Structures are given as C-alpha cells and as structure tokens.
Amino acid sequence: MLLDLIVTIRRLLRFGLKPASVGQLLALTFLLAAAEGIGMGGLLPVLVYIERGAAGLRGRVDPLTNFVVGQMDRFGIDVNLAALLLIVLVPVLLRQIILYARMVLTANQSERFMANLRDRVTGAAVRADLAFFHRKNFGELSSAVTTEASRCASLVTMVGDYLAAVALILIYLAIVLYVSVELAAMMVPVIGVAGLVYWRQLAASHTLGRAVTDNQYRMSIALNEMFHGIRLIKMRGHESDSTLSLRRIFGDLGAATARLQTVKAFITVSVQPIVMIGMFGGIYWAVEWRGLGLSEIGLFIFMLTRIVPQVSTLNTCRITIADTGAAFDRLERLVAEARASAKIRGGTRPFGGLRREIRFIDVSFGYESGDAARPALRGVTLVIRRGETVALVGRSGAGKSTTVDLLPRLLEPEAGRILIDDTPIEEFELDNLRRAIAFVTQDTILFDDTIRANLSFGLIPPPAEPELWRALDSAHAADFVRRMERGLDTVVGERGVRLSGGQRQRLALARALAQGPDILVLDEPTSALDSESEAAVQAALDGLRGRLTIIVIAHRLATIRPADRIIVIEDGRTIAEGTHDTLMQGSNAYRRMFEMQTSI
Fold first, then answer.
1. Contact between residue 323 and residue 212 where contact means Cβ atoms under 8 Å apart
2. CB-CB contact of 443 with 473 (8 Å)
3. 563 lies in some domain
C-alpha cells in the first residue's frame, strides 16, 4: 500500500509536480485530520451530557471529558448542551475550511500538472528526429497528449484523497480505541477481512487498467485514420465496414471499462457489510458483556459509519492508481523513446548560404521496420551546384524523399558524408541550416489561420507586408489573394479547406519563398493539380530558376524536362544523370519510365 503511494508520488514529481505542492498537500491533510479528530472526539462529552446530564459529565474520569469541562469552568462557561455543541462546531467548521483549501490546491495542481505533462510529451515529440514519426501513428501521439495525460493528472487528486482517507481512518480508529480498547481490538480482524477482499481484486484492476489504456489508443488511432480517410471511405462505400471495425473497438473498450468498474463496485459493496457485521458484533459484546453506556456505544457506531466511506475512498484511490499506472508507463516510454530519438545535434558554424555545391558522398540510410532495418539509400553519390534546378526521379520507394530529408538533417545518414561547400553539414548550426532550406510538398500543410499567419509561420521577425506580397507574386498567388474580401487576413480553414488545390499549393510555395531560402525543395509539387493549376505553379517555378538552387522530386517526368539535370534513383542508388535528352539516349530506366507515362 505504502510502496504504491511512494512510487506514484515519485512519478508525479518526475513529470513536473513540485515538491512544495506535495508538502502543502501533506500539511493540509494533517490539519484536516487534526480538525476532524478534535471535532469527532468532542462528541463524547456531548453524548455523555445527553445521557447523564451535567452531573454525569463531571463524574467522568476520561481525560478528554475532564479537559473540556475544565476549560469551560476556567472561562466561566455554563456546562450545557448548547455550549458543548458550539465547542464541537468550531473544529467542524475549521475542517470544512481546510477541506476547501485542499480541494482548491489539488484542482489547481492537477491542471498545472496536466499542462506540464502535455508540454513535456509534445516537447519531446517535436524535438525527436523525423525517424521517430515514421515509427509512430499520429492517433497514438494524440491520445497520449489528450486522454492519457488527463488520466495521469487525475492521480494528483487521487493522492490527496488517498492521504486524507488514511489519515481520517487512523483518527477514527484512535477515537474508537479511546472509547474502548476491546472494541478497537475487535475491529482489527474485520479490517483484515476487508483488506483481503480488496487485495484479491487489485491484480484484476492492474490488468483491466492496461486493457483500458490499450483500447483507448486503438480507438484514437482508428478515429484518426477514419476521419482523415473519409473521402476514400465514402467513394468506396465503406461506411458500414469502417463503423463496424470501430464498433468492435468501442465494444472492447466498453467491456474493459465495465469490468474495471465492476471490480470497483464489488469492493464498495462488499466492504460495508463486513464492517457492519463487525460493528454489530462489537455492539452486542459491549452491551451484553461490558455494560458500556449509550454514549460510548453511540460514538463507536458513529465512528464506524465514518470509517466505512473512507475505506471505500481508499480502495477506489488504490484501484485508480493501479489502473492508471499503465497510462503512466506508456507516457514514460513515449517520452523516453522520443528523447532517445533526438540524436541530431547542430554544430557551431553559422550557415552563410550555398556558394558552390552540395555533395553527397557514398551516403547510406535505413528505416527501422519492426525488428529489422529497411535500407532506403545505398551509397548515394551526387552533386548539386548552386543555382541549378535538379530533378530526382525514380519509382516509389526508390529513396528520393529520403535523399532530400537528409539535406536539412531531418534524418541522419548511417554512412557517408554530406558536404555544403566542402563543409560537413553537421558542423553548421542546425536552425541556421534548416531556415536556409524551404520545402514544398504534395501534401500541403496550411493551418486554420489567416493567409498572413500562414506565410509568416515560424519567421522571426515576421516579414513586412510588402515582403509577403513579393513572395505571393513570385508564387503566382497574388492575384487570387487580392480578389479575396479580406486579402491577407482571409482565414483558409483547416488544412486550407476553403481554397482550391492549386491555390493551396501556390500559397505553400509563397510561404517557402517568404522564408528567403537559398535552397528550395519541391516534393511532388504538382502531381495532384489540374492542368491550369499545374501551369500556374510551373510558371512560378520557371521564374525562380537561376535565382535559387531548386531540387525537384517528380513522378510526372514531363514536368521536369526543362531541369538542368535529372538524377535517376533506383533501389536506393543513383544509376544515371543528365538532361532529359541525354537520359533518353543513355538510360534505359529513364526512357522506360518516360515512355510508359507518355503512352497512357
């Protein structure tokens, strides 16, 4: 019991709960228990007075009654029922004030802890290398930040309730012990039986807690995939099958949660009868064999009725702590994996821009796939000169995107070197290098914000308005932005849903140009566009030729015919390079790809 509590507190401290907050929680719990003990203990003189009157009260020999009567005599207070009730009322009211303060403290600390935990998980994930995201599902990451962080934050409240329940149970038992040592001794086996019932259910709560956590992750992943693929689902008439698979996950989650609640309910309903049997046995023994008065028996019964809900609270807290442990384990593994993945470190040399060339020398890279590594590049050697427009072509999975991801060090090569102007790229300041390289991908990333905010994203200081319009002009996007009622302050919607595909792509290009890059990487920039939109984007790119070093990845070979050089990649290796005309003459692989596309 104590070990689980210590482990939980250590986890909370490790994930951002401040030691001072734990100290405040302990102090308030101690004050709460003390006020409760004084208030409940003060009931004994009240009950004695009700049973025997003032004379009977003064005839008592127990220290508590003598202390109360002595203090009333000292301050000249008449010993009567009203005065005794007022004396008991003071610590009871104080208890409520302390309880309120503890509830406010735990609520604030729980929310702060949850915010800190979410910040820690997202911070670790964002700083992880790109390879980390190749291994993780976005639904899993989303569930960790939302559902699991919330469950872990609830432990702050659970720890407070747990400590309070333990303290109050001890106080109540001390009062029972004060009333009668024999009655208190009779309660020991009763509590032991209740504890045995609880322990038998604890292992089940651990298992069910892991099942709940796993099914919540499955649900989050499935929902993420369904909503992102809703167009495909509808086009394939797959709505029923999609909801059927989700229904199974919902059912598994509901069943695991219901079984967990059943365990909690069983403990709740079984503990109270056990305590009540012990209480009735104690009453019978006290009346028939010990001849205790109504005041002692009444206080004994009252204390036991106060113990029962605290025992239930204690059991509920223990089970919650147990079943939430799986969520903490998952978050700890996720953060540890993300931090372990963040291996790429920048150098100290400022990147002053590309002056001569980029050179890949015998570069190899492999992705993790299950327990094995899947090679993506095998000894790639190539040169890209300043101001060139170079196209990388090849079948899907040939290694084109991996090649360009290595340039800004989103991935790190397993072997070989990448040089910029004869300087290894790992010697450059990482942020400095990446800001000089702009990416435009087929899957356009636009945020649910204004055009101005999207163009300025991540740029410090933000570009002035004339600079934004120059970037829009260069991307052939200024005309349609000017036609919008709010211009740069137009909100584009989530993922740019309020714009056409061509408009989204041109805005993405404008954002890349607003960055003021030396190197522009275009990964399938026109493959999903109609002819008119493709022509507009192509015209924008033609205007940039010679001004920037441009690297284009394309499957549609007709769009990269004007490139200065075309590099053919196959199975992770460069197998040919040259202009379109020279490759048509000298590369069977390129010629087959081109003829296959033009014959369709």
1. yes
2. no
3. no
Q: Which tokens belong to 4?
A: 């689980």
297: which 2 tokens?
Answer: 């028996």
DSSP character string of 315-375: HHHHHHHHHHHHHHHHHHHHHHHHHHH------SB-----SSEEEEEEEEEEEEETTEEEE
- pLDDT tier at 178, thresholds 50, 70, 90: confident
> With helix as H, strand as E and coil as C, how does 109-122 read?
HHHHHHHHHHHHHH
The answer, yes or no, to whether residue 42 has pLDDT greater than 50, is yes
Statement: residue 356 has pLDDT above 80: yes
**How do strand 415-420 and strand 357-369 relate by DSSP bridges?**
antiparallel
User: Could you tell me the pLDDT band of residue 372, with boundaries at 50, 70 and 90?
Assistant: very low
- Give the whole-number percent of the chain exceeding pLDDT 90: 5
pLDDT tens column, 448-478: 888 888 888 888 788 888 898 988 888 888 8
Q: 463 with 320, same domain?
A: no
14 burial level (CB within 10 Å; 0-12, 13-18, 19+): exposed
pTM of the model: 0.66
366-371: list long-range contacts, CB under 8 Å, 24+ apart: 366/414, 367/131, 367/134, 368/131, 368/134, 368/135
Tell me 548's DSSP state: B
The encoded tokens of residue 267 equal 């403990």
Look at residue 370 in the predicted model and tell me its pLDDT.
46
In a domain, 347, yes or no: no
Tell me the C-alpha distance between 197 and 311, whole Å. 12
User: Do 144 and 277 have their domain in common?
Assistant: yes
Which uninterrupted H or E stretch holds 520?
A: strand 519-523
- Strand 549-553 and strand 389-393: the pairing is parallel
Domain enclosing residue 275, as ranges: 2-341
Q: Cβ distance 239 to 233 under 8 Å?
A: yes
Listed residues 516, 533, 560: the one ending a domain = 516
Domain closes at, from 483, 516, 549: 516
Strand order in the sheet with 415-420: 372-385, 357-369, 415-420, 423-424
Q: Rounded CA gap, 287 and 303, in Å?
A: 17
* 234, 293 contact by CB (below 8 A): no
